[in-house]
Amino acid sequence: MTHIDIVGGGILGLSIGYRLARAGRRVRIWERAPTPGGLMGRIPLPELGIACDRYYHAILNSDRELMRLFADLGIGEDEQRLVTTKMGFFHDGRCYGMSTPLEFLSFPPLGLIDRLRLALTIVHCRRIRDWRALEQVPVERWLESLSGRRTTRAIWAPLLRAKFDSSFDDVPATYIWSRLVRMTDTRDRRSKEQMVSLRGGYMTLVERLVAAIAAAGGQVRCSATVEHVAVAGGEVVGLRIDGTEIATDHVILTLPTPLARRLLPPQAAAADHQWAQLESYLGIVCMLLVLRRSLTPYYTLNITDPRIPFTGVIETTNLIGAENMGGYHLVYLPKYVTPDSPYARLPDAELIPEFLRHLRTMFPDLRDDDIAAIRVGRERYVEPLHPVGATDRIPPVVSPVAGLYLANTTQIYPALTNGESSVRFAQQVTAEVLQAARRRRERLEMVGVG
Length: 450
What we know:
Blueprint: E1 3-7, H1 11-22, E2 26-30, E3 42-45, E4 50-53, E5 59-60, H2 64-72, E6 80-85, E7 87-91, E8 94-97, H3 101-105, H4 112-127, H5 139-147, H6 149-163, H7 174-184, E9 193-198, H8 202-215, E10 219-221, E11 226-232, E12 235-241, E13 244-247, E14 250-253, H9 257-262, H10 269-275, E15 281-291, E16 300-303, E17 312-315, H11 317-320, E18 329-337, H12 342-345, H13 348-362, E19 371-384, E20 404-406, H14 419-449
Parallel strand pairs: 1-2, 1-14, 2-10, 7-16, 14-20
Antiparallel strand pairs: 3-4, 5-9, 6-9, 7-8, 11-12, 12-13, 15-18, 15-19, 16-17, 17-18
């Protein structure tokens, strides 16, 4: 039986491995980190006796593919927590709730006409079925045509500027369309936002996937450095891992595109050229505060104040429950960064007081003794950037090299990068890999017969 090797043990790689193993394929997953999970891994806080997700990850009650995967893996309702969450905006030095229709209609920064146009923008987004026309339109121009100039400048532009680290001129309208459609799917009949958390965080899903892959005869190997893909005669023939060559028939690279390209030999020049068409990413710097008290009533507090460097205040224990974190409250302060952003290079010793200074402008009563622990997470490749009109540059899963595949978040577009879209994309990747493997086997059998 042929081997299928997957490089990268994040949620996408594990989901693909799980489906391939269930289809009867011999799967090996190689992860460089000491534990699987990637961005959805866990961070220990031994001084407090707890562990939590390295970064915040929302699961919506509308995430159907995730829910099906939970059921497949035996993650029952007793391990899930459904919560009505709140969203707010920090605007002009004040916090405003935006969780109910009444709060929406009384949002002070906007006039009545502005609020109505904002509501119509949401309704319009939900009626769009073909997103390809939006892909050709810059997001600011599109928003101004729907929400108006004042709403765009007061609300949308600051949020986009924070998300894309100041420059969003080349961002297509699909970004806001995808976001609004996803987030409004969380509303129940009373228009309240419903979210789901897992007991033990996303690591619960990671551990169940690893166990299911092993039960189906697959392997997940951590602390393994893949050095390059071996190609001969236009086909994959092996991998070099920690200085050792292993034979393989198929390799799926689930790494960010720039990292995947580094593994390609000169014999894979056609794949390298194809993948190089779209490889820009935003990184992230995210400070985690573990507090002895709650900071806000909101799960998400969006920030429109351009003086605040982080993009939002995410208090995840308003979803997962402080009682599940030893009574502590978790607050994430994310900052999306371009490679040349000063914040991408700022050492922790300077970034922490900088973020705390700005957080105290929002919450002046935050005291030093409220803070039980601080961690800073950094990732270079998090959010793939898709310029206006770049859909045709998205690389296909099946590469020009037989047996070589690329599967990462650049190909999830126009969906947002999250657990739901990754699990859904894993199904597509699995189907394409199995089909390509079948065609390759048939071709080899025909050559053998000849």
